[in-house]
Amino acid sequence: MEYKDYYKILGVEKKATKAEIKKAYKRLARKFHPDVSKVANAEEKFKEVNEAYEVLKSDENRASYDQLGSNWKAGQQGFGSQGGGFSGGADFGDFFESVFGGAGGGRTSGFGGQQHFQRKGQNIKQTIKVPLTDLYTGVNRVFSIQQPQQHPTGQTYLVEKRITVKIPKGIEPGKSIRLQGKGEPGLNGGPYGDLLLKIELDEHSKYELKGKDVYLDLLLTPWEAALGAKVNVTTPAGSIGLNIPKNMQSGKKMRLKGQGLPAAIPGNLYAVIKIVIPDDNENAKNQWQELAEQFDFNPRS
What we know:
Layout: H1 6-10, H2 18-32, H3 42-56, H4 59-68, H5 72-80, H6 94-100, E1 108-109, E2 113-114, E3 124-130, H7 132-137, E4 139-150, E5 156-167, E6 176-179, E7 195-201, E8 207-210, E9 213-220, H8 222-227, E10 229-235, E11 238-244, E12 253-256, E13 269-275, H9 282-294
Helix pairs in contact: 2-3, 5-6
């Protein structure tokens, strides 16, 4: 039988990364899935794509396949007779069955005869963007994800699903939420893998997160900064009143202890002062000129 170039089937280079292989698989699985594809030989193409991905997604199987290469016939008997970790449940081609072991190549157990080798499905990693306000309160949110499903023939394909995810209060960006059993299907009836959702901060123009500390710009008029004032500040936890001392300079920080990201030891919130000059008009220009004449002040001296 003919040697199959699994890299060529997926349209990737031999040095392709796991991410590149997975991306190519997703694209081709969608293109050739028998339920949606109008390509004449879609079912055969779909089978080949899944067969190639089944080998190349696993470091162990990929290494064995690369080692075998175009000389696969010389080593197929010894390699296939080990079972290779594959057996009966999936509809793979003759080359795959001959090299990696078919229904008759199941792993023999020392606990009473022949058994099919089962393996837990691979975990899937995805990123979800979450507003800072959700990290303050914790919330249930709905996300669209690409979730693997198993065809009755044993083939795996991707479908888009909407799932509800509980965002824990105070979780830091970069950490992941694990959803058990939402990953790839297991081999030969093995359990599904898990879905790992990595938290990424949905950028908000008002806030910046550094560790557990939150920074925001507090805009003041020149007279508020000079005379002092009480202003309302919008924070991720809601609006609060803040007393501004007189003679406040632009760039200074006002710390609100414990008002940062919630935790056993919460972060702080820092209001960074920025003085804003009002829009220019003739009356304002005259008043600024009067102030300039009244004050003998040069901040650069």
